[in-house]
UniProtKB/TrEMBL annotation:
The chain holds residues 416 to 694 of 865 of the full protein. This is EAL domain-containing protein. Residues 23-277 form the EAL domain.
Length: 279
């Protein structure tokens, strides 16, 4: 039994060791990723449910590692957050997304807002509003064409600090949206005095709307409450026609999901805009 215990122990430490090494390797490589141009943005359309037309896009980062392949953000954004690399990476994302939105417009497409995810660490940095303002000026994007997506966890800090930072950002003229709504602990009433324009209903709710009465009623009440607080609603992770008709019935404003389009490259978005692709 003793023998076996020792084996188990060494098995687990070896496993753990591998994971720690993997993390360290990933972290090292991530340091070089920006300089080596390995990061790129994909864009996923948001569709207005009244008009059926693309009403905006969300920028989503991808890391293309030579000889390895594409690493999804869920695998490296947490590391970037821990190490602080999210600050330079986040600035790069913001600049690239704003520049792309300006480029689409210059190519003759109607101006559509671009949404960028802002992580907790970025939001907490001293001069986040200055950084955003400088990027808007540098790229020439109209502030109203930029949307910043924040998760509830970002907003679970000292309320006065949060309110102050949100007001500074809002004063620039950008739109603010609450990402993954419903997965955290905040209620919409906690948010009612904050300058939030859009609530993005998390995809876990959408997967439930056609399969459970509770899922459907929760989603309905999020839409209704957002409405009463004058916030627009976007449903994330829409994959089926059934989910779409639910959203239409309950007057959700916009949808985003594989049912319409996966995240695609900048040129592919331009093609969709040219073709007038509709829901
Ligand atoms: P998120 O902000 O909630 O982004 C939505 C995620 O859902 C994206 O995953 C998108 O590809 C995926 N998705 C879209 N439609 C569907 C659908 O119909 N079904 C399903 N199952 N999934 C769908 P992705 O691109 O892998 O990004 C994952 C997360 O990584 C994002 O979640 C966001 O939290 C983070 N992230 C991505 N890009 C950035 C970035 O530039 N900065 C920061 N700070 N975080 C980012
Ligand atoms: Ca998002
Ligand atoms: Ca989300
Ligand atoms: Ca998410």
């Amino acid at each position: 039994a003793k023998e076996r215990g020792r084996n188990c122990y060494s098995f687990y430490t070896r496993e753990l060791g591998t994971r720690v090494e993997e993390q360290a390797e990933l972290e090292n490589a991530l340091h070089q990723a920006l300089a080596n141009n390995e990061l790129e943005l994909h864009y996923q359309p948001k569709v207005d449910l009244k008009t059926g037309q693309i009403s905006g896009v969300e920028a989503l980062i991808r890391w293309r590692r030579p000889g390895i392949g594409v690493i999804p953000p869920d695998r490296f954004i947490p590391i970037a957050e821990e190490t602080g690399l999210i600050l330079p990476i986040g600035e790069w994302v913001l600049r690239a997304a704003c520049a792309q939105a300006v480029a689409w417009h210059r190519e003759g497409h109607p101006p559509i807002p671009v949404a960028v995810n802002l992580s907790a660490r970025q939001f907490r940095q001293q001069n986040v509003a200055d950084m955003v303002r400088a990027t808007l000026e540098e790229t020439g994007l109209a502030p109203a064409r930029l949307e910043l997506e924040l998760t509830e966890s970002v907003l679970m800090q000292d309320r006065n600090t949060i309110a102050h930072t949100l007001r500074e950002l809002k004063a620039l003229g950008v739109m603010l949206s609450l990402d993954d709504f419903g997965t955290g602990y905040s209620s919409l009433s906690y948010l009612k005095d904050l300058p939030i324009d859009v609530v993005k209903i998390d995809k876990s709710f959408l997967s439930d709307v056609t399969t459970s009465a509770e899922g459907a009623s929760l989603t309905r009440s999020i839409i209704a409450m957002a409405e009463s607080l004058h916030m627009a609603t976007v449903a994330e992770g829409v994959e089926t026609e059934g989910q779409l008709s639910f959203l239409n019935r309950h007057r959700c404003h916009a949808m985003q999901g594989y049912y319409f389009s996966h995240p695609v490259t900048g040129p592919e978005i331009a093609e969709m805009l040219s073709a007038g692709t509709e829901l």
